[in-house]
Amino acid sequence: MLSGRIWYALLALMLLISMAIFAWTNPSYEKAFEAKWHYFLGEYDKAYDLAKEAYDLDRYNRMAFTIMTQTDVARKYLDYIEEGQRYLNIIEKIADHPPISEADKIRIKMICEVMMGRYAMLKPTKLTDKKLIDEARAMYERFKTIYDSIFKQK
């Protein structure tokens, strides 16, 4: 009876080892593991490229597909944060030269509305980096504060 349990345990262990060897020697899974590494390092462009290559090699590689999807979401968050920073710089330049003209107020209003609208379109997943989500939320809050301070005081 004990030898039967040992036999099944060895069989399960051999199956796991063979799956690991397959995953590490298959070019698609090699690229997917490398893509996952780059994703966790925050190198989203490199991770996306590697995951796409892995997925193109094997359409059934769910790991590659998941990484590709996750890096796409992360890149949308990064783009939002970077664009928000550029717009904040524009708003600061406008604010540095008071008084703010009516045309500049309209420009600021449009910028804030665009950025608040874009934030609403961001959809995080369970695997999205928490730091990116927090930075995007902080960026949204900055634009909401600017919008409220200029246009809600009337």
Describe the secondary structure blueprint for this structure:
Layout: H1 2-25, H2 27-41, H3 44-57, H4 62-95, H5 102-121, H6 130-151
Overall shape: it is elongated
Count helical runs: 6
One letter per element, helices H and strands E, the order comes to: HHHHHH
Question: In angstroms, what separates the terminal alpha carbons?
Answer: 84 Å
From the alpha-carbon coordinates, what is the Rg to the nearest angstrom?
Answer: 24 Å
What fraction of residues sit in β-strands? under 5%
Structural class: mainly alpha
Low-confidence stretches: none
Mean pLDDT: 86
The beta-strand count equals: 0
How would you characterize the largest beta sheet?
A: none
Helix proportion of residues, in percent?
over 70%
Which properties best describe this structure?
single chain, 154 residues, mainly alpha, 84% helix
Short description:
The chain is mainly α and 154 residues long.
What would you say this structure looks like, in words?
The protein is an all-alpha fold. 84% of the residues lie in helices and 0% in strands. It is built from six helices and no strands. Helix 1 (2-25) crosses helix 2 (27-41) and helix 2 (27-41) runs antiparallel to helix 3. The longest helix is centred in the middle third of the chain and has 34 residues, at 62-95.
